[in-house]
Amino acid sequence: MPTAADKRRALTPEALAMMDTIARTGSFAAAAREMGRVPSALTYSVRQLEDALDVLLFDRSSRQAVLTSAGQELLHEGRRLLQELDAVANRVRRIATGWESELTLVMDDAIARRAVFDLMEAFYAERLEDGTPPPTRLKLQVEVLAGTWEALLHGRADLALGVPAQAASSTIHCEPAGELEFAFCIAPHHPLAALPEPLTAAQIAEHRIIAVADSARMLAPITVGLLPGQDVLTMPSMATKLEAMLRGLGCGSLPITMVRRHLDAGRLVRKSTYEGRRAGVMHYAWRDTGQTPGKALAWWLDRLRSDTTRRALLEQHEGLLL
């Protein structure tokens, strides 16, 4: 019978990473290729782990790498432990050098990508006293609506660009980035294009609306503009929503700066609606630990204090991925 010490010795970061790789790739053979090991050695390592924990982690009756309930629990907790180990290493490095080993940025899909890339380019162009660039690795995530706030709230990101509303949290600090105005648009050949303005709720409800799916995993998703009983076409991003609207597949609202060139070219028609002018204040937010921010986060916060930078995040949509 394995002792508690045996179990602790078996639960190494390498063993947890092995479980994660097998689950992610779906087979022992694929995991072995990714890890640079032979399948037999990987199978032996899994059996050693099972013996040490005295549990069965994989269903041997399946040709694929199917986790048992015990295996699923180990995978879930193992991933959490690996994240915590990374967080400890990150904190240690920051204390030693002042620079985070990694800074994760999350941007709402409504934020202008060009402006974010301009900021990343400027960050990498910085030089330390020894002439080297900042040692911090940047990681960029794109989320939608509540998914942006959730990524920050649950520790998957350090800085969020485009939080729709200032949510209450004692561990997160929010600052306004500016107002983002939305335009209700349809293709010129869409039936709503010929109707007088403003469009009523009843008129809009008769036609399919194109929406972008909220990317929140645990928080309640946010639904914007959907009327009771209305048909909906759900897209994964603002860019795909725009494409669907250009093709006349439905109606919907997008940031005015994202659709302006299509309106000017006549590819889209803007219509006023019963809602009147629709706009909201976007925020940027970061985790406030009560300590001095690391040098990478401080660099981004310093740039975000600029009115020009904040306007660019809400306005520079044209010419990139659209």
UniProtKB/TrEMBL annotation:
Keywords: DNA-binding, Transcription, Transcription regulation. The keyword Transcription regulation applies. GO terms for molecular function: DNA-binding transcription factor activity; transcription cis-regulatory region binding. Residues 11-68 form the HTH lysR-type domain. InterPro entries: LysR_HTH_N, LysR_subst-bd, WH-like_DNA-bd_sf, WH_DNA-bd_sf. Pfam families: HTH_1, LysR_substrate. Signal peptide: none annotated. The keyword Cell inner membrane does not apply. Belongs to the LysR transcriptional regulatory family. This is LysR family transcriptional regulator. The lineage of its organism: Bacteria, Pseudomonadati, Pseudomonadota, Betaproteobacteria, Burkholderiales.
